[in-house]
């Protein structure tokens, strides 16, 4: 869709109340089906989006509209603007996958004449796949040709975006969070951050501090769950000499040290009841009184508190004071779970990956190696991560990335390993996300077939073919034996599979780049380029590279 047509469509939706897009006083937004890039051979493209507004219009009118997905359509662009371009991966078919409006706000995917292998949430699509409205709301993870990962979901038409505040993410949930921060710029009210563990509450607190009226002062963070209850008052408000055991000299508390700045109180629900009244007094009067001192001291401290606890239940059970909650929540912000911002998983994954690799001096692993290059990051890995629900949220994702990099930084491809397969609940063997035990069993039965008793090649799909080729390093003879077919039949399957290429198709620059990365190690180069070692040698000889 051209920019002119897009603007015309936007005006249409803003004035036409007959569309399926919901616009009410409670939800004054425009939502349309669209795609977000979670993984691409060029990692710099992760996060680009494409809208399918015609499907939203068709859903509201009952008309038949079809959107196309191929290497040529649609055009993607970063949410903040920039170059518009198609996926442009030569291993994707030019013939499009078709998407149309379904019943009840869902969508229908049809592979049509496309030869691109399509997986939706880990299941191979053959012919047609219906996506219900709730599946679309959650976000459906598409893996195309084993190369590109997309999230098919509902995107919001955004005409203005808040500042990023150093936070990673452009999903609707993150935009709402950033608008909340924007509203509080220059305001010194206490703020209560609510969200599950690992959602990034301290990062939001730092963003509020950096853009608030106390940005020039100190920023101190205190986890109330890590302080013994008997020391909580002294840690917060300070203590005079001899006020308690171990206080051999006057001890400044966190409020005194944060004077003129911001104090972030994490796990505020763990604050002892007897100390809650003292904190309430400080918030109301701006004065602290160190333990053992008769002289109060005025402080100017902005308090940002955070919790993942149900404070209302704690109040009902007498474990938390209602007046303190009311005072702390002068303004309340709820942080989204990671599964509620699934469109950001690709951005976050590559963000953490870049940080880890930079620390190790391996940033080159995230370079783009051209349309025929093999990315260091397996697309199947990203697809599996995007489909996971992440009970530990962003912190858990960050830890997974760190562990993957440490364990596989010397490998030609970053892919699932045993512990990650177990965590994600996959049935695949490492490196074969999406493969099932049933498929492995079928391969094993073929392997045990009597010599010369060939199986029907038409029963072997692209997924099984790729799995067998990778398991045998793209060596034709053992692969054919494992599949129980003749080598002639295997060559025929390879010719028809869009996810497999021959060594003869490799270009000189791609081979030279791989040779440089692996110091001329043919085995490592063949594994990265996904061709046979013998075929790679012959291609290099033909090009005069050996």
Question: What can you see in these coordinates?
Answer:
- By secondary structure, the chain is of the alpha+beta class.
- Among the domains are: 172-334, P-loop containing nucleotide triphosphate hydrolases (Rossmann fold, 3-Layer(aba) Sandwich), CATH 3.40.50; 437-496, no CATH class; 503-542.
- Helix content is 37%, strand content 14%.
- The protein is built from 21 helices and 17 strands.
- It has helices spanning 3-15, 53-61, 133-138, 172-183, 201-210, 232-237, 254-257, 273-285, 311-316, 322-328, 345-359, 379-387, 393-408, 418-424, 437-447, 462-471, 476-483, 487-496, 508-517, 522-529, 533-542; strands at 31-39, 49-51, 66-69, 97-101, 107-110, 118-120, 123-124, 128-131, 140-144, 148-156, 191-194, 219-223, 262-266, 287-288, 297-298, 302-307, 331-334.
- The longest helix is centred in the last third of the chain and has 16 residues, at 393-408.
- The chain is elongated, with a radius of gyration of 28 Å.
